[in-house]
Amino acid sequence: MNIEKVVVIGAGQMGTGIAQVMAQSGLHVILNDLSDEHVQKGLGVIYNQLQRDVKKGRKTEEEKQEILERIQLSSNLSEATDVQFVIEAATEKLEVKKQIFKYLDEIVPNGAILASNTSSISITEIAAVTKRPELVIGMHFFNPVPVMKLVEIIRGLATSDKTYEMIKSLTRTIEKEPVGVKDFPGFAANRILVPMINEAIFCIYEGVSTSEEIDNVMKLGMNHPMGPLQLADFIGLDTVLSIMEVLHDGYGDPKYRPCPLLQQYVKAGWLGKKTGRGFYIYEGGK
Ligand code: 3HC
Prior knowledge:
Elements: E1 5-9, H1 13-24, E2 28-32, H2 36-55, H3 61-69, E3 71-74, E4 85-88, H4 94-107, E5 113-116, H5 123-127, E6 136-140, E7 150-155, H6 161-173, E8 177-182, H7 189-205, H8 211-222, H9 228-235, H10 237-251, H11 260-268
Parallel strand pairs: 1-2, 1-4, 2-3, 4-5, 5-6, 7-8
Antiparallel strand pairs: 6-7
Bound molecules: 3-hydroxybutanoyl-coenzyme A.
């Protein structure tokens, strides 16, 4: 089965990026979310990004139009009946994902591959609610999706070799680099990245230095494009905490305990850039 038409579920930061890179590579994309308002907003994000590419001379106006024409909006998942591939980038809650995959399994054609962009939930567990676990796989993109080259490809316990090879090939089609990993908590990228961020938060908590200085250490000393605290704000502190909790629960090792300061920030609603306040204060934040 050739993958030509796909559904992207979730028109947030990750879903819009995924829809954009897929449409840029010639795939027909149905961008789905719960309401028309959500999908319209998502399309606006893609439009602005493409417009920026046109201004910078990276795309022509015609290319922009063609890409936009390949994106169809939908707030009704039952329309996803004639596709070969679905990627879910909805909220990071196991119950929500299970519900979506159970429903998808009933409506999408036999043989279609179902992927999740989850950053930490077990692919094996998501696959278990379907009758096609061999066709369920993880495809973990990185933010900002149009820029970051990596896609972690996560094999659940039952994912077939054929599904894995097809998704590796799809990843190259959309000009990204696949890295295959097994279904362990945090997979590989977040298992390495997020404890580093947590450790940086411990440095603030214990008074080692300020956020700016800790970020400078990693930017100037290790050539990271963003410091760990700036990156935490960019990812969202709720997401960072939830990944630490998955690592802590999954491995049962105290080295993964979330920093109490991170827990407090999340309780306070200081979730980073999206709420206007995290380790830094952003426009509109207090
Ligand atoms: N969307 C799309 N493109 C973007 C973008 C965005 N949000 N932000 C920046 N870009 C692109 C722009 O095209 C820009 O080029 P242009 O100015 O010519 O148009 C180019 O990136 C460079 O951007 P800037 O000059 O504004 O800023 P930087 O040079 O600092 O780059 C960055 C921005 C690419 C975000 C860089 O800071 C970076 O790489 N940061 C680290 C990102 C990272 O680690 N991401 C992984 C997060 S972890 C994750 O996603 C996993 C999850 O499970 C938690």
